[in-house]
Structures are given as C-alpha cells and as structure tokens.
Amino acid sequence: MTDFFVSYTNADREWAEWIAFVLEEAGFSTIIQAWDFRPGSNFVLEMHRAAESASRTIMVLSPDYLNSKMAASEWASAFALDPQGLERRLVPVMVRSCEPKGLLPTIVQIRVVNLDEDTARTVLLAGVEKARAKPSARPSFPGSMGNVQQKTFPGRSEPSARPGAIPKLRRPWSDLEKKKFLKSGLQEIRHLFQINMEQCEREEPRLASDFTAISEVDFSAEIYLDGKCRCRCRIWLANEIGSEFIAFQEGNTTGNAMNEMLYPSSDDGENFSATLAMGFHGSENKFDMKRLSSKDAAEYLWGRFVYPLSY
Question: Which residues of 198-229 are buried (b: 16+ CB within 10 A; e: fewer)?
Fold first, then answer.
C-alpha cells in the first residue's frame, strides 16, 4: 500500500506538493492529484482508488479545505475506517489558520502555520512518525535549583569572546550528503520541467511537448512548434571526471557531451555552481551562477531549454 494520500484543495496545491515531496525525500510513498492523476483519467475514480490504497490520509488543512465538499468526502472516508484514531489513518496538517468544527477538533493536528521551512519540515516528519515523541536528550530540570542565582567568581574574570568574533567553521560535506543534495536538486528540476511543459500546451495550441523519463535520475524533454521540434534537452545525474554533478545537454548534441554542468558549490553545500556559464544566455543574468539554489538551477536550465522559441 501507499503510505499517504495527500488530500487538498487547489488553493493549497503548493503546500500539498511541498508536503508530498518532503515525505518522499524521507522514504515514504505518496499519492497526490497534481502528480498522479494524469490527463484522461477519471477524477472521481482516481480519488476513490487513492483513498482505498493509502495507509493514511493527510489533510492539508486550511479555510478553503474546510469549505470544500469534495475534500470532506475524502477525509470522511479515512475517518470511517479509524474513528477512534488507533491507527492514525487521518493526519491533519494545518498550513493556514482555521477553526475545524464537528469531529475534526478531536484529531491531534500537525501545525506548520508561520514556521520557516526547516522547522516546518522537522515538525511534519516528527508528526507522521508513529513512535513516541520522547526527546533524545533529558529535559532541563524545572525545579528550584534552576532559579538559584549563581555567586559571582571573586577573582579576575577573563573576557569572553564577543558574538561574531569567531567565524563560522565549515564542515566538508560527506559523499552521501552530496549525493542526496544532487538527487534532490535533480528532482526539483524535473518537476519544474513537467509543470512548465504542461502549461505550455495549455496556453499555446501550437505547442506540443514530450517528456521522457529515462530513469529516476535521467530524463529528456522536447517542445514542438507546429509539429517541428524546436527545443530539445537531456538532463541527468552524471558520474564522470572523478565526481558527480547534474549534466545538461541541449539541442541535437548526442552521446554524453554536455553544455552545462552543475556541481555542489565549493563554499557550502546548499547551492550549485554552473561551471560552463559564459553569459551567452539571457537566463544567466538573473542569477548568481556560482550560488544557485535548487529552484534557481531549475529555472536557469528551463530558460536555456526554451530559448530557441524566442527566435
């Protein structure tokens, strides 16, 4: 069975996709309308199958969700299978402030309202775990001893370092951390390409697209204008020249020749460095090419991919 069915309304689609992505990064499997209900499928039947095949249902809780009749049927299905909450089949994740009524207030919620991304991710993953929420370290003693004022040392005290006097020391990333970062960045690029290609077809009837998943870490994309291929690229996780990186091949290039290589930035592990950027593409002017976030990297490669449509 799938671990989670993510139930949401269109107003909270970005939250739903973020939740699903974080869960899959952590090793869970998910079903989500935005990724799994493809054109031509029966929406109602897909919802029915998703609710039946998932062990648990996540409610992306917001004012819009509470007002949605369709969403109500989705969470009610999970509630009916576990009305006492013994199996935790229904997991509310509140993403925008709201006041659930009826049966919903009795179900313990995961709240990510107004949290920063790192904290929200920690809270979400801790909330979906079925184990006890016992802390890994002993809590501080809450009794009176903690309130006793310490005597001042009567001798000469050494000056303490002022905040910021010591620079933050960088810890080199391990090979495993780099691998995870590269795969996560590639998934961000892949997702943006799929969403944008679908949007191209919706907004311009003269365009048609073809997305081909060669493997989990390798895909190709093409856009046709009036039936003629105008944009073509392949993007994959390469392991060459003694290191790993995201490779980008555009146009009619064949084999494993590359037009761009994205490496984890040498000064920190949270960004990519575009090694072949030479100012030939307008999309390069939008970003710091040596410090690209995963989102920036995706937008940069998309800009290069669709550039042929501009002339």
Answer: eebeeeeeebbbeeeeeeebbbbbbbeeeeee
- Residue 37's SS3 state is coil
Cα angle at 23 between 84 and 88, to 5 degrees? 5
Spell out a b/e string for 73-104, using b for 16 or more CB atoms within 10 Å of the CB, else e: ebbebbbeeeeeeeebbbbbbbbbebebeeeb
* Residue extents of the structural domains in the chain: 2-128, 175-310
Rounded Cα distance between 240 and 233, Å, is 19
Find the DSSP H helices in 129-218. Answer: 175-203
- What gap in Å lies between CA 19 and CA 25, rounded to an integer? 10
Give residue-wise pLDDT tens across range 252-306. Answer: 877 778 888 998 875 555 789 888 765 556 667 788 888 888 999 999 999 999 9
Please say whether the beta carbons of 4 and 54 come within 8 A.
Answer: yes
Say which CATH topology domain 2-128 has. Rossmann fold (3.40.50)
How far is Cα 287 from Cα 300, in angstroms, rounded to an integer?
A: 8
Q: Is 272:264 a contact under the CB 8 Å cutoff?
A: yes
pTM for the whole thing?
0.47
What gap in Å lies between CA 105 and CA 257, rounded to an integer? 57
Does 145 have pLDDT greater than 60? no
Q: CA-CA distance, 70 to 295, in Å (whole number)? A: 32
**Whole-angstrom Cα distance, residue 281 to residue 26?**
36
CB 8 within 8 A of CB 18: no
Kindly report the backbone phi and psi dihedral angles of residue 62, in degrees, each rounded to the nearest multiple of 5, phi listed first.
Answer: -160, 170
The span from the CA of 22 to the CA of 122, in Å, is 10
> Please, what is the end-to-end C-alpha distance for the chain in angstroms?
49
